[in-house]
Write a structure and sequence with these properties.
Layout: E1 28-30, E2 40-42, E3 48-50, E4 57-59, E5 63-64, H1 81-96, E6 101-103, H2 119-133, E7 140-145, H3 154-168, E8 173-178, H4 186-198, E9 202-208, H5 212-223, E10 229-235, H6 242-245, H7 248-255, E11 258-262, H8 284-287, H9 290-310, H10 314-323, E12 328-330, H11 337-344, H12 353-363
């Protein structure tokens, strides 16, 4: 099958530095210890899953925060107080609806982009503000190490992690990931992940954009130290199923490594918001073109029809399709409270096997965009 010559990128910059017998997801509430009349939600164990072979448990859906503070790919190239307030709303609404797993990275909100703010800094600020109101609030944080060519050795991982912790204002994070495989020195990076676990700086470790071979190598290297590889974060959606075609999904299932799906709604293409007459703005418009969106319409129409049977939106159907694949945690990016609430409604119910298969069949007729090139290294 021919593939379009577009590229999607899971971070801000590269070169310069995600049955009808359904049940509703209703988080239990308890009275908050902090002052105020509102209550803080508490997640039941049923709403969480173990991340790979680690002891870490996270919600079945997380929130990606790549766009927070960014002005090089998202936000129409500008970041302002209005967008800051919206991001804070996305954070609080996620927690209010039982979603407490947030994924960031040191390169999100690049310091080399004038006017941008570090996503880690913003997430850390939101966590502190939340805990001032709800001292018992629980937030699971995942961040990532940038395998830049000039970074060498295991100590570079620890140094970068400590810098991330400073920006987050935390003493440790729940999940630390290698954002992409390095051009060289990957053994040292993996050793650095192991050191981070042994130093108590992280609860679990993972990789991102790793091919099947690199995934297996990472799993075995960490296994020798008795440390499980918890996750592999890759581009995966109904219309981008490269992890299935390259063996990454099967390897994750075999090894007990959780697949975390970034761009799970194809950067908005699966929401139904965009049409050939109304394509996305900015760099996404060069990826999800009018021609591509035209070919996507029959699938979007069917997704909408299925969603109506469940009183669900196309976005929720697309995310639920991923969850139905098993061993997958989607992390859609939430820019505001409305999106966050919608994402939370993607779990707690299940598409039928026939619906899952039908959507897969229809999606197979669409030539996918090309993902981040290092997936194939």
């Amino acid at each position: 099958m021919a593939m379009a010559t577009h590229f999607t990128f899971p971070f801000n910059y590269v070169v310069s530095e995600g049955s009808r017998g359904r049940e509703k997801f209703v988080p239990k509430l308890v009275r908050a210890v902090a002052s105020g009349d509102s209550a803080a939600p508490v997640k039941s164990e049923e709403s969480k899953v173990k991340l790979g072979g680690s002891d870490l448990k996270v919600t079945k859906l997380g929130i990606g925060v790549w766009s927070w503070g960014d002005n090089s790919y998202w936000n129409d190239f500008q970041w302002d107080d209005r967008k800051l307030k919206a991001a804070k709303g996305a954070f609080d609404t996620s927690l209010d609806n039982g979603i407490d797993f947030f994924d960031t990275a040191e390169v999100y909100g690049s310091k080399f982009s004038l006017g941008a703010i570090s996503s880690e800094t913003l997430l850390g600020r939101f966590i502190r503000e939340r805990k001032e109101r709800y001292p018992g609030a629980e937030v699971s944080v995942a961040t990532k190490y940038a395998a830049l060519p000039w970074r060498l050795g295991r100590q570079s991982v620890i140094t970068a992690l400590k810098d991330s912790l400073d920006r987050l204002g935390l003493q440790s994070v729940d999940l630390y990931q290698l954002h992409w495989p390095g051009l060289w020195g990957n053994e040292g990076y993996l050793d650095g992940l192991g050191d981070a676990v042994e130093q108590g700086l992280v609860k679990a470790v993972g990789v991102s954009n790793y091919s099947e071979k690199r995934l297996r190598d990472a799993y075995e290297r960490l296994k020798k130290r008795g440390i499980p590889l918890a996750s592999n974060q890759v581009n995966y959606s109904l219309i981008y199923r490269a992890p299935e075609q390259t063996g990454v999904k099967a390897a994750c299932d075999e090894l007990g490594v959780t697949l975390i799906a970034y761009s799970p709604i194809a950067q908005g293409a699966l929401t139904g918001k965009y049409t050939p007459e109304n394509p996305p703005s900015g760099p996404r418009g060069r990826i999800y073109t009018r021609e591509f969106l035209t070919k996507l319409q029959p699938l979007l129409n069917r997704i909408k029809q299925i969603g109506e049977n469940y009183s669900k939106t196309p976005t929720q159907v697309a995310l639920n399709w991923l969850v139905a694949q098993g061993n997958v945690i989607p992390i859609p990016g939430a820019k505001n409270a409305e999106q966050a609430k919608e994402f939370a409604g993607a779990i707690g119910w299940t598409l039928t096997d026939n619906e899952v298969a039908e959507l897969r069949s229809m999606a197979s007729e669409i030539n996918p965009v090309v993902g981040f090139p290092v997936e194939y290294l």
